[in-house]
Inverse folding.
């Protein structure tokens, strides 16, 4: 069982230790977001509209993968810097495919009375960390995540719902708030993943 108080204590300990980098990351994400908004506005209605959208998609995907790697490195006490955001490690293609499967499953689940979508999103939430650590293929990453989450289903569900709610509040703040909440919630996800993984390995 995961002790919630210990989890929160460790989480804030990580935030305190790495707060300077986290603040820098938030500022960087804000700059990227405003730059992308400007590019979209400038390209709207032009022949380069689609090209800009594709470029932004790949930039955001690379940064998102990099943020998962940084969050995992913070939890593992491994080295990282801003260049980590752009080092895909050969996982980019598999990450895109797995993310598409994941979000498609969540969307389908949401259409099925919402609850199945929430359950799906929680069961497979750890796929980025598994892919980064183990170099697994898309389906294997999802399968391992599901297996891990099932060992601590209720606690994972509770923590994930709280994290989703935090990001939702960030999204409602003109979407700017997501740049603030996302680094924090990803570190929380990485910490939860490592705790469940260690517990699962100890039970074998």
């Amino acid at each position: 069982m995961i002790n919630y108080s210990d989890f929160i204590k460790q989480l804030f300990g990580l935030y305190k230790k790495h707060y300077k980098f986290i603040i820098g990351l938030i500022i960087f994400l804000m700059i990227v977001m405003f730059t992308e908004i400007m590019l979209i506005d400038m390209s709207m209605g032009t022949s380069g509209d689609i090209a800009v959208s594709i470029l932004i998609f790949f930039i955001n995907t690379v940064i998102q993968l990099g943020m998962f790697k940084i969050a995992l490195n913070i939890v593992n006490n491994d080295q990282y810097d801003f260049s980590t955001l752009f080092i895909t490690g050969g996982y980019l293609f598999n990450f895109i495919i797995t993310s598409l499967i994941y979000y498609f499953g969540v969307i389908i689940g949401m259409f099925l009375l919402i609850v199945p979508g929430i359950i799906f999103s929680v069961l497979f939430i750890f796929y980025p960390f598994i892919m980064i650590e183990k170099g697994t293929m898309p389906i294997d990453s999802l399968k391992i995540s599901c297996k891990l989450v099932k060992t601590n289903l209720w606690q994972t569900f509770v923590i994930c719902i709280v994290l989703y709610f935090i990001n939702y509040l960030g999204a409602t703040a003109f979407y700017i708030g997501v740049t603030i909440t996302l680094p924090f919630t990803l570190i929380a996800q990485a910490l939860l993943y490592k705790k469940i993984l260690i517990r699962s390995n100890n039970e074998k």
Q: What stands out?
A: The chain has a mean pLDDT of 89. DSSP finds nine helices and no strands in the chain.
